[in-house]
Prior knowledge:
By secondary structure, the protein is α/β, with parallel strands linked by helices.
Amino acid sequence: MAVKITAVAKQLPQYSRDTKDILPLVEIWLSGQEERYRRKVLKIFENAAVDKRYSIMAPEEVFVNTSFEEKNDIYIRESIKLAEKSLNKVLKKANLKPTDIDYIITVSCTGIMIPSLDAYLINNLKMKQDIVRLPVTEMGCAAGVSGIIYAKNFLKANPNKRAVIVAVEAPTATFQLEDFSMVNAVSAAIFGDGCASVILSSYENEKGPEIKDEAMYHFFDAEKMMGFKLRNTGLQMILDQAVPQTIADHFPNIIHPFLEKNQLTIQDIDHLIFHPGGKKIVQTVEDLFGSLGKNIDDTKDVLKLYGNMSSATVLYVLERFMDKNLPKGDKGIMLSFGPGFSAQRVLLEW
């Protein structure tokens, strides 16, 4: 029984700003710091390969000394709005009603919400009262692909059902005003806010790329490379500078055995749907794929236009491929990395 991805829809927050227009705010934030460090941070913003980003709050609000409670309240309020708009949009794309969905997975790691986001969506859209819920909260950038894997396995076991994944992230709500570490500066330079929804189906007559296989790959002894530390001031980013090299070291084991299991090589893959974690990670993966004659142009474009929106970002890349009306038989591989440290892979065939 085939499980297919039938529709993807992104939803952008109301605020946006070009990177060049954020630099004056960054300069004010850095005003008490040593000149050399200030110049270095501004260069990081200028060279991050992110031209524009969107946010759930005005850029000026990001640089205000508000409490964790105040920022998290904004995260809750705006995440519900974004998720509802995105879910309505993807349902319209698929020509479905809210009650046509049997399984809902909500994904977010940039705030805390109990009850989880799915509870609000079920109530606001009057979805099925027996809908199956799964909130995914602690898998970071990998969780968009993780949600697709969980949905696929549910649908594989349940014919004639539909699932939706709603990923909403607001990294701006995690910015640490009093933290002048390089990690905080780098994460502020590469991250943006966003939301996306994906519908999967196990109905035979519905169209879209089929999920042929999926797998997770876990790096040993790398738990401290990426994540958040919960502090009184909020969620403080953890991002080890060794992440790109670690990905490069493991890359052959992540890609080739997964394809070999499906009697494929990288030459058989037509489309690379890769999560743009940041400029260095993109360059690392581009070098690895480039040597194999492949490109990740759509991944680079998404990073440039929106920044890294954690779990939602790879779904923005997926939407671009879904909108291309690709030929039957084309194959694609989705790939994302996240805390754990782990890699998530999905093989698609149009």
